[in-house]
Specification:
alpha+beta; TIM Barrel; 6 domains; 6-stranded antiparallel β-sheet; 21 helices; 58 strands
Length: 1090
């Protein structure tokens, strides 16, 4: 038995080691599944085979794992390769074959446009449908013999549902907010109103509703003997909503398919684009083109389908026929009964939406070997979480400058509760002001890391506009939208370093299971989305949202709520509602009895007409049993079974009373984000510095008994954390994070004690003199130009020690200058005499200084060299005290500070031919290209090569030193060579690189390739007469010289693009190698851990 146990333990250890090794290898060299994807917009029929090949080869070169094809109309002149034409189909086949050759996954949006599922092949009877009514007033006794007026008819289609008659109610009692309540439009979280009574004569009695449907002839003629009194004849039917898919070119535009009908969706798939494309690509369907997409839902709601009545009967347990007058605004039975009926209508619409649109679309994808991706939210009446749960890859979105971040958390929750691995996001979407070639990888890094912390683990860039031409730059745009992730972008090739960083992050974030303490139940009121609680996450507790469908499958085990997906939570939080159906309440009671802690108010009644009024009696009885005397005011807890109900306390308070410490805490004043996942016995935390300045922090993790490692996604380096301590059952790890820096802190079990340091005390404190910040002009304004307010004085008062940080919102800006308009803050300022302009959208953060160029020098760095030894880099002179885990204090003395060599004198800068700048300039000192007298340099965009010979004294190159090259400030990315040795791409501060292995005594040849943004050249071109015709910012038509391939009339114009984003007077962007350039020689000391 002992031998068997020994072998078993050895196998477990071997398995753990193999898992650790594979995890580390996948991190260093991420597989294709971890690489970011991109949306690939084919714009206004401008498509070419050579462009497709060039696009895909460029994607492969920089590390894009997949592309999602869209066919869109954004107002660019047509290229003539019309949607679904033979030429278009050839382009699709070519794209799939080329992607297969290159090993790139493809996805395709299921129709033209980006929303939602429609096309010219959709027949009106298969379109989205709504209930329409027309009433006729008659008085009896009499004989009615006439043609009933037909209700509204759209798209040439109308069908009858029923003809009903009822005594005309007295007065004007009507259903309020009928459009939302009857699912004509989406309105989240509508609850039944409280009114129960109304005079009998003011309502329609359901028992008094007569069904005259069989008496009406096909032409609408009705013959009926009207009883005594005033009667209303109501003709009820359905017609298409009239919504088309958008934004599609004319050949791809048509009615949106019925979202409540599987039969309609089958016809949409089989008669249209999807079946055609899959037939055309043959065996590559499900292999290379392996995914179909439904983008964000933007085509409105519907409330009918031909089988709605029978589906309603099956699901709700009663016939809706006598309640149909409610669709015309009449109150049937009583206000409460009508409200309950409408609640049931919304419930049924939501269920059919989820099952017959999202669910059946997923089935069709599976049938053809495809995955299904979707952004499961928008303006339809459905349960967002359930819709996302039908997809293989639920997706959110996020915008540069702020916006839609809650959808990322929604998609992550959907993935977690339904057991999906990949959480996608339409990434870095940009409105015109925030895009237009202004963005570089570093400017987007903090935002991207924030989204990772919300649970996204696959970026899908918004966007790559297909470049059909090989001879122009920047070329095609998706109109004014997006951040221009194309092969024609200046930093495309250097951007591969950023993509490698993203792939390493995504690889780890795709492993294991998410860790959360709280489950927020969203409730039953349809339509419904998910709460967004950044306040809770800021306190170190993460959460998921879960819906009714998943809650009903939950169990309680060992005091935790457990889902079939494997997710577990410490508490379940109910929504603030006094309504709950008996079925859900029975589940809540079951969970509490089994040991769960549930926070929320006591329900009083059911919202549904199903089983009414017995349903209310059951709710009251069971609620009394579970909640007991807990009223949320005088009594805030009630034990029930093995668990308890809590009402009237915050989630944080309940967790604290349960002795559940925060999962993550940063040093006070820091702005850190995190996400926690667990893979077997390994805990993985991703930590992001959301400030664009260096932060030295202590981070506390709710982990003990494990050894922390630092996994650096920018380099792939994995090292043991040399300094940490266990405190109060948690592990505290000091971290030095670069501006917008990030690291994975990975905790693993160790089979033997691991020596480490618990603290390090460095000599001296370096005080950095704050910069001089002057706010010159600040305007809080509507983006659409509707107005604004001058807030210059307000911001001037917020400046502290040369810095400014504020969340831009109506409260901090002193009020709302333009209600109901989306706003931004535009700030002009000087920092140390240099002029800057920044624009921040409403609800985003403004931080000045925005970024740290060279980066603050550290006091020290510790690197693990071996199991028993670390390397101390002593950036300061003096004595370092290192407290070892075994209690011993080691003292290391550095006699001199870092040796600094300033690189001064002339620089040779070489520019590529054909882009306006001279072939070579010599700079006496480093300056921004925008400060150069030559307009060709001033307006240059692209990559320039800096060359310089650096004299390195032999005394700096010693075995006990490491040498670093600091480039200071770089706009925007660079690649570095020293003595012909490639040292990599620097895309974020500090722009500093270890040159120890490349430097030599004496003369050293330094070469730095610096790449800026397109902005300056585009502004430069605007200094010359235009040779294109525009409608505002929109290209009116492709100019004749362009179409015929002739020289352009104004040769000084060097760029060509399809949207005008910049004017001649727009401010230029600092560009080039700005410096200061310095070489640091840092003393290194080997320190034993034993």
């Amino acid at each position: 038995m002992g031998a068997i146990k020994t072998v078993w333990l050895a196998l477990c250890l071997l398995t753990a080691v193999c898992l650790a090794d594979s995890l580390q290898e996948g991190f260093r060299n991420p597989p294709n599944s971890a690489k970011p994807h991109t949306w690939w917009h084919w714009v206004n029929d401008n498509i070419s085979k050579e462009g497709i090949t060039a696009d895909l080869e460029a994607m492969k070169r920089v590390g894009v794992g997949g592309a999602q094809i869209f066919n869109v109309d954004v107002g660019v002149p047509s290229g003539g390769v019309t949607f679904m034409s033979d030429r278009w189909r050839e382009m699709i086949v070519h794209a799939v074959k080329e992607a297969n050759r290159l090993g790139i996954e493809l996805c395709i949006h299921n129709c033209a446009g980006w929303s939602s599922s429609g096309g010219p092949w959709v027949k009106p009877e298969h379109a989205m449908l709504i209930v329409v009514t027309r009433a006729v007033q008659v008085r009896g006794p009499s004989r009615f013999a006439d043609t009933l007026p037909q209700p509204e008819k759209r798209a040439g289609f109308y069908r009858d549902i029923a003809v009903l008659a009822f005594p005309t109610p007295q007065g004007n009692l009507r259903i309020q907010n009928l459009r939302g309540k009857a699912a004509y439009e989406r309105q989240d979280g509508i609850q039944p109103v409280a009114e129960t009574g109304a005079p009998a004569e003011s309502v329609v009695s359901p028992e008094g509703v007569l069904n005259l449907t069989a008496l009406m002839q096909a032409d609408g003629r009705l013959e009926w003997d009207v009883p005594e009194g005033n009667w209303t004849i109501l003709r009820i039917g359905y017609t298409p909503t009239g919504k088309d898919n958008h934004p599609a070119t004319p050949e791809g535009r048509g009615l949106e398919v019925d979202k409540l009908s599987k039969e309609a969706l089958d016809a949409f798939w089989n008669d249209g684009m999807m079946a055609t494309v899959l037939r055309d690509i043959g065996a590559l369907a499900g292999k290379t083109l392996n995914n179909a997409l439904v983008d964000s839902y933007e085509v409105g709601s519907q409330n009918w389908t031909p089988r709605f009545r029978e589906e309603f009967q099956r699901r709700r347990g009663y016939d809706l026929l006598p309640f149909l007058p409610v669709f015309a605004g009449y109150v049937v039975g009583s206000p409460e009964i009508s409200e309950r009926f409408l609640w049931d209508v919304r419930q049924t619409v939501s269920e059919l939406f989820v099952e017959n649109y999202y669910g059946h679309f997923a089935s069709l994808c599976r049938k053809h070997g495809l995955l299904f991706s979707t952004e499961p939210y928008g303006n339809g009446t459905f349960d967002d979480l359930a819709a996302g749960g039908r997809a293989n890859i639920p997706m959110g979105e996020f915008w540069i400058g702020g916006g839609a971040h809650e959808t990322a958390k929604l998609a992550a929750s959907s993935a977690h509760i339904y057991g999906r691995t990949i959480v996608g996001a339409e990434s870095f979407t940009a409105a015109p002001e925030m895009g237009r070639w202004q963005n570089d990888p570093y400017s987007m890094k903090a935002l991207g890391d924030h989204i990772f912390c919300l649970g996204v683990n696959r970026f899908i860039f918004h966007r790559y506009a297909h470049q059909p031409w090989l001879n122009v730059k920047p070329g095609m745009t998706m109109g004014p939208w997006g951040f221009h992730f194309e092969r024609t972008n200046t930093w495309w090739e250097q951007g591969r370093a950023w993509l490698k960083y993203l792939a390493r992050c995504q690889y780890l974030l795709q492993q294991g299971r998410f860790v959360a303490d709280v489950a927020f139940y969203v409730g039953e009121h349809q339509p419904i989305s998910a709460p967004f609680r950044p306040d809770l996450r800021a306190k170190g507790y993460d959460y998921d949202s879960l819906n009714k469908e998943v809650l009903l499958q939950a169990t309680a085990r060992n005091g935790r709520i457990v889902l079939p997906s494997g997710m577990t939570y410490r508490v379940l939080v109910l929504p603030e509602s006094r309504f709950m159906t008996p079925r859900v309440l029975r589940k809540v009671a079951e969970l509490v009895r089994a040991g769960a802690v549930v926070i929320g108010p006591k329900p009083e009644k059911s919202p549904s007409l199903s089983g009414y009024p017995r349903c209310d009696e059951e709710v009251r009885r069971l609620a009394d049993e579970v909640w007991g005397n807990c009223d949320g005011v005088n009594v805030k807890e009630h034990a029930y079974g093995k668990g308890k109900i809590v009402w009237g306390k915050s989630v944080e308070q309940v967790l604290a009373e349960m002795k559940v410490l925060p999962d993550f805490e940063g040093s006070p004043g820091s702005r850190l984000e995190y996400i926690h996942r667990v893979v077997g016995d390994t805990d993985i935390y991703f930590v992001s510095n959301q400030r664009q300045r260096t932060e030295e922090v202590e981070v506390t993790f709710r982990v003990s008994g494990k050894v922390p490692q630092l996994w650096h996604p920018d380099t792939g380096v994995v090292e043991s954390a040399p300094v940490y301590r266990v405190q109060g059952g948690r592990t505290v790890v000091p971290l030095r994070l670069d501006p917008a820096g990030s690291v994975f802190v990975v905790f693993r079990k160790s089979t033997q004690p691991v020596s480490h340091f618990t603290s390090v005390r460095a000599p001296g404190v370096v005080k950095h003199k704050p910069g001089r910040l002057v706010i010159r002009k600040a305007v809080y304004e509507a983006i659409d130009g509707a107005g604004g307010a001058d807030v210059t004085a307000r911001l001037q008062q917020m400046v502290r020690n040369g810095t400014l940080f504020v969340n831009v919102n109506n409260a901090t800006m002193g009020g709302d200058p333009t209600p109901l308009h989306y706003k931004r803050l535009r700030v002009e300022y000087t920092l140390d005499g240099k002029e800057y302009t920044t624009v921040v959208n409403e609800n985003a953060d403004l931080e000045i200084p925005e970024r740290e160029g060279a980066g603050v020098l550290p006091a020290y760095e510790l690197r693990t060299v071996s199991k028993n030894k670390v390397e101390l880099l002593a950036w300061r002179a003096g004595t370092y005290e290192l407290q070892a885990s075994h209690g011993k204090i080691l003292r290391v003395k550095a006699n001199s500070p870092v040796q600094t060599l300033k690189v001064q004198g002339k620089w040779t800068v070489r520019f590529p031919k054909g882009w306006g700048a001279p072939e070579q300039v010599v700079l006496d000192r480093l300056i921004s290209w925008t400060e150069h007298p030559d307009p060709g340099v001033r307006y240059f965009s692209g990559t320039a090569r800096y060359e310089k010979i650096i004299q390195i004294p032999p005394s700096l190159i010693t075995p006990d030193r490491r040498l670093y090259l600091s480039l200071g400030e770089v706009k925007n990315l660079c690649e570095v060579w020293l003595n012909g040795k490639y040292l990599g791409i620097l895309w974020k501060p500090p722009f500093r690189v270890d040159i120890t292995g490349a430097v030599r005594p004496g003369l050293n040849k330094l070469e730095v390739h610096v790449t800026n943004l397109w902005v300056n050249r585009l502004i430069g071109d605007e200094q010359y007469p235009d040779d294109c015709e525009w409608q505002g910012s929109q290209l009116k038509a492709f100019p004749q010289w362009f179409v015929e391939g002739k020289p352009r009339p104004v040769p000084q114009r060097l760029t060509f693009t399809t949207w005008k984003h910049w004017t001649k007077d727009a401010p230029l962007r600092p560009s080039g190698l700005l410096g200061e350039v310095e070489v640091y020689a840092v003393r290194k000391v080997q320190v034993p851990l034993q």
